[in-house]
Amino acid sequence: MAQYSIGFIGAGNMATSLVGGMIAKGIRPARIWMSDLDGERLAGLRQQHRVHVSTDNADIASQCDVLVMAVKPQVMEDVCRALAPQLAGREVLVISIAAGVTVANLQAWLGPHPVVRAMPNTPALVQAGATGLYAVDSVSAAQREQAVQILGSVGLTFWFEQESALDAVTAVSGSGPAYFFLLMEAMIDAGTELGLDRATAQQLVLQTAWGAAQLAITSPNSPDVLRQQVTSPGGTTAAALDVFEQRGLRDTVNAALSAARDRSEALAK
Ligand SMILES: NC(=O)C1=CN([C@@H]2O[C@H](COP(=O)(O)OP(=O)(O)OC[C@H]3O[C@@H](n4cnc5c(N)ncnc54)[C@H](OP(=O)(O)O)[C@@H]3O)[C@@H](O)[C@H]2O)C=CC1
Ligand SMILES: O=C(O)[C@@H]1CCC=N1
Q1: 20 to 30 A from 218, CA-CA: which of 10, 20, 87, 104?
Q2: What is the ipTM of this complex?
């Protein structure tokens, strides 16, 4: 990988997942810069990862060729407007990972820089991330490649031609890990209700989730076929699946993802 420097503005959950995954993948910490309001958090990150840190966003922006904007959508405008003078006249690739913040917003706040809008997810920390990407026309082929090198170092990347697809990606894979964690929590609670000790219930649930995902990824069969292979006629799985279907799991999932997509769209306004 070419030795350009990468700065993260905002060192919260998603930025630290990305940085942890990038370093585990072999990207040198000396190339990574992180800023945040919280000096203690930064000190911990410097100690853990040996990255450069600063509580001054402008300091990070002045050092880096690629800037990953990783603050919450609600503060993105203020953060970008404050950085605009720092970036003026420089060739910096901006990658925003914020939900719902459009490239038009980012360019209005930062200036006419090449912008990639990305939607990663926290499994990036273990190189099992999934990221949707959208680029404005001014992003060069080399800069697209930089975005893929960074986000692709921690998982799969997918380019989209329409920016609106990023709202759907946010609903599916950006927020998606939380849906599976909720199901894990519910299954652990249910297993405990059924008399298992909590630690064993947790191990059984996590191994089952991991095994199901591995099987679904490696099998030539689609999830519906794999589900049928578990389901003996008149057996235990059928009894459980009947309850899920009767209580409207599919409609619930559909409504939940629509709510996430709508929220992503609303954040742009
Ligand atoms: N978490 C996730 O799974 C995903 C998140 N995202 C996106 O990533 C972005 C960050 O989310 P997430 O990591 O969860 O949020 P966090 O709140 O964990 O991280 C944001 C960090 O930015 C800091 N911050 C706030 N204001 C400033 C500022 N002016 N300058 C520098 N740093 C600042 C926050 O500090 P403080 O806490 O003190 O406010 C916090 O540490 C969001 O835009 C979100 O939409 C995208 C994909 C997945
Ligand atoms: O909840 C959120 O808004 C962010 C975006 C996707 C995951 N977390």
Answers
A1: 20
A2: 0.98
